[in-house]
Amino acid sequence: MKKRYTVGPVATEVLRGVDLDIRAGELVSITGASGSGKSTLMNIMGLLDRPTSGSCSVGGRGVSAMSDDELSDIRNRTIGFVFQSFRLLPRLTAWENVALPLTYRGIDGPEARARAKSMLGKVGMAERAEHRPDQLSGGQQQRVAIARALVGSPAVVLADEPTGSLDPETGEEIMRLFAQLNGEGIAVVVITHDRSVARQCTRNARLVNGVITEVVIRPGPAPETIRQQHT
Ligand SMILES: Nc1ncnc2c1ncn2[C@@H]1O[C@H](COP(=O)(O)OP(=O)(O)OP(=O)(O)O)[C@@H](O)[C@H]1O
Ligand SMILES: [Mg+2]
Predict the structure, then answer these.
(1) Mutation test of ligand 1: which of 6, 16, 36 has the most ligand atoms closer than 8 Å to its C-beta?
(2) Ligand 1 centre and the CA of 199: distance in Å?
(3) Under 8 Å between Cβ of 29 and 37
(4) Has residue 230 been placed in a domain?
(5) Domains of the chain: total
(6) Which end of the chain is less packed: N or C, by CB atoms within 10 Å?
(7) What CATH number does the domain containing 44 carry?
(8) 29 occurs within a structural domain
């Protein structure tokens, strides 16, 4: 697929023919220089934006002809996002932010609270559950955003520089969490500038001049070893 942005008289062809498949249980990194189109690609993969031409499918279903409502429905049920700028809601506490995707899945009340707090524990944020985003450091906000992406057990996690604000140890912990999710059949796509993060992935997709060059780093899990909970 291709993506072109037009601002006034300036048209920029950001993606010039990208062909990328993400399979269950894979951990794929997307790398590329600043401005190469990584976040643009993530927005299209996450059904937040549409390509200028070409197509995208999720779980084998083409999404081009779907209405915005259908897209948000698929997005809310199957995709977990970690945005580059976190996008936490400022008036909500950490656990309330984390619990948001659960409401789309029909889970609220004490169960949502318990699951949100348990997920915060997994990213080392149990002590900050009642804090609002402006009462948290950048790295802490990033971990809340990661917890929010993971809490609803999505089929796919799309993470834009998820370790960008974290110290190396915390970053390692997040990568271990992603690897654990892979074992449960969840696909994780991480945009990263960090070579050590890219090395821990099964594949690297590098964006240069609007096209992707793929490198296999290690074999992904065999399909039969993946617990198929997202069909
Ligand atoms: N909504 C938009 N309208 C117009 N141009 C845009 C828009 N979003 C992105 N662009 C342009 O598309 C190009 C790719 O942007 P994108 O945010 O995808 O880059 P990136 O690879 O994520 O960069 P970074 O590593 O700095 O986050 C840039 O040149 C940017 O100016
Ligand atoms: Mg970006």
Answers:
(1) 36
(2) 25
(3) no
(4) no
(5) 1
(6) C
(7) 3.40.50.300
(8) yes
User: Is there a domain that residue 108 lies in?
Assistant: yes
Distance CA 160, CA 46 (A): 11
Ramachandran angles phi, psi of 184, nearest 5°: -95, 5
**Per-residue confidence of the chain (231 residues) as pLDDT tens digits?**
999 999 999 999 999 999 999 998 899 999 999 999 999 999 999 999 999 999 999 988 999 999 999 999 999 889 999 998 899 999 999 999 999 999 888 899 999 999 999 999 999 999 999 999 999 999 999 999 999 999 998 999 999 999 988 888 888 888 988 988 888 889 999 999 988 898 889 999 999 999 999 888 877 666 555 554 444
Nearest CA to ligand 1 atom 17: 39
Locate 54 and state its tokens. Answer: 């070409």
CA of 168 to the centre of ligand 1 (A): 27
Q: Which ligand 1 atom is at minimum distance from the Cα of 37? A: 18
Instruction: Give the CA angle between residues 144, 157, 124 to the nearest 5°.
Output: 30
CA 2, CA 53: separation in Å to the nearest integer?
5
Residue 41 placed within a domain: yes
Q: Is 12 in the pocket of ligand 1 (CB under 6 A)?
A: yes
Query: Residue 99: which domain range?
Result: 2-219
In sequence order, which residues have a C-beta less than 8 Å from that of residue 44 and are 6 or more positions away?
1, 3, 15, 50, 51, 56
Mutate to test the pocket of ligand 1, among 1, 2, 7, 12 (most ligand atoms within 8 A of CB): 12
